[in-house]
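User: I need a structural model of NCS2 family permease from Pontibacter actiniarum for a docking pre-check later this week. Nothing fancy, just the predicted structure tokens so I can convert them on my end. Input:
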Amino acid sequence: MESYFHLNRHNTNVKTEVLAGVSSFLATAYVIVVNPTILSQAGMPFSGVLTATVLVSFFSSVMMGFYARNPILVAPGMGLNAFFTYSAVLGMGISWQVALGAVFWSGVVFLLLSLFNVRTLIVRAIPKPLRYAIAAGIGLFITLIGFANAKFIVANPSTIIGISPMTPALLTFLAGLLLTAVFIVRNVKGGILLGILFTTLASYPIGRWWGTDLAPLITWQGLVAAPDFSLLFQLDLINSFKLSVVPVIFAFVFTDMFDSVSTFVGLAEAANLMDENGEPQNVQRSLTTDAVATTLAGLVGSSPGTAYVESAVGIEMGGRTGLTAVVGGALFLPFLFLAPLLSMIPPIATAPALVLVGAFMVRPVTKIDWFKMDDAIPAFLAMVLIPFTYSITQGIIWGFLCWTALKLVTGKRNEISWMLWVINIFAILAILQH
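Assistant: Understood. Predicted structure tokens for NCS2 family permease:
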């Protein structure tokens, strides 16, 4: 363990890495149920997508741990599965088999870009102020997700969003939030994981006494289900290579690339996972892993895989090496048979962890020179648009375009790299397509 993952060099140990892996898994595990729920609306069998989701999450996260040695979990992306279902299949009218083929071909493009180091160049082309802003924006995004999962923040026709009326469920969430915060402030080992467990246990009386669906009754009959491999190799490689499907492949390529790159850069910046040159550690191997995850997703029957922002939960618990990702990834595998077990962990249980992780991820904003307005304005836009648009991609797109525009009009063209010009072209194409 020590010789391979270099635990001492990263000031960590096996216990810390294991606890971090468990915490990241608990924060990410919702994908096992949510991904099939969305993709099944495209006509795919729920059980088949569930099996595919577990396979992608397991193999890709373990690869991230062993090959890239980074503490980041990889699983099918949420925005990408929505595009797969609502835009590609239901919107454009292509079959889900063709859409899976598009996922596969986008993964091949990713792999080529990674092998030829293009994606690494993209990472290095991101200006430092935007890197700091992306990290903070992702933190705010995670916090928003946590509040939304707890139904603390809800839609409001008059004010766009608002606070929900106080309920027993919200009181339980707030109690879990306070206790988890106390654990963190007092430096309790495994405090975030303890907060998740406490909130889960506290939610069960609510489910019994108030008749809500927060905590379902435990019945062993509903906990075990056989895996469904019916979606393996069901992709349509030939029809997905037609000209009419190219926009779908491009959308997968662009969205997945910027989601994964910005997530990876943001997490690395927040956790100081940098190499001696100040770049995210093992960047090429990490992006290659992401490319393999997308290619694998097309083969087994899922939307593209991507690095998960919820990995920040484990990173904040001290996870600094690939062992965290290996542990988190391995925990997906039993759910080939035990997927219903996840229904015992209600959304309000992981919500406090997601909310509080945001407090740690906004730290890099202190590195931005807020008095240098041609740096500050693009950074600010990138930071706030990530949660406001509910899209990491949109935040980084508008941050890039604003950076380029302001540097041009202020006579600082030398601060715009050639790769950033290329990125801007693709950003504009993505906006036009959107």
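Before docking, keep this in mind: The chain has two domains: 2-152+215-343, 364-433.
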